[in-house]
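Risk mitigation, structural track. In case the binding assays with NAP fail to produce interpretable data, a predicted complex structure has been prepared as a fallback.
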Amino acid sequence: MEPKGKTAWITGASSGIGEGLAYAMAKAGAKLILSARSADKLEEVKRKCAGLGATAAVLQLDMSDHESFPEKVKEAESFCGPIDILVNNAGIGQRGSAVETIPEVDKRIMDVNFFGPIFLTKAVLPSMIERKSGQIVITSSVFGKFGGPTRTAYAASKHAVQGWFDCLRSEVHKDGITVTVICPGYIRTNISLHALEADGSSHNKLDKGQLKGMTPDECAAKMMKVIRKNKSEAYVGGFVEVGAVYLKRFLPGLFERIIRNVKVN
Ligand SMILES: NC(=O)c1ccc[n+]([C@@H]2O[C@H](COP(=O)([O-])OP(=O)(O)OC[C@H]3O[C@@H](n4cnc5c(N)ncnc54)[C@H](OP(=O)(O)O)[C@@H]3O)[C@@H](O)[C@H]2O)c1
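Fallback model:
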């Protein structure tokens, strides 16, 4: 969908990829609703979007507070009318082995990365179906396409997102709604800082993978192309991570032998 003049609601807009996408959408002429938990950071992003000439509103939202979603959708629609583009981008990472990870961490990651996007989408969909128009965008991950050490719940949440939104795409095609799943590789954001360790504490380190990754602005520019083209799925990242998606698909045995020996960070 061409974002000019459209209302785009971006979750996880206070930092990283979502923040980069907010500026790209602002430059493209979209009206923005910016969501995350950190209201102060969102206000700063809103100020910068206004500097780029965009109308933007802040809507504080916790992706694990699913019961709040119906009210949040009403609030979002009160800013500049119905939502044309919903970008389900907010997420948390993981650093911990399966055997050591406490169940609360597995559940937390599923709550934020899987149940959050699907319940928010369900709350936005009726209005899109009524208007026979809309685009749902999801920031998944290359970990939605393969798995690796220390990411069991994270990869599970992203695989679940892939499956749910693939099914949704087939259901809402008749309603003029498109579903775009974007799978980033390493992007230079704070994701590893806030990633959950096995005991639920924050990883608190900027990992090598993220440090050598592309910038959020570069990622956002590529995402904008994918959004404009209404693509169903796209991979945005470096040669190695995106190559790994194809390696898993075409040479799964070789992929398995490599991934078990890789320190994935
Ligand atoms: N960076 C990468 O290498 C990479 C690779 C593949 C996929 N991704 C995906 O990209 C998305 C964005 O991550 P990022 O890399 O930009 O990381 P980031 O800089 O840490 O940003 C994460 C965003 O999600 C928000 N968020 C986290 N928990 C939330 C909650 N419970 N409720 C509402 N918002 C919440 C954060 O805001 P608050 O803390 O203010 O709530 C922040 O705005 C995630 O879905 C992630 O899985 C990232």
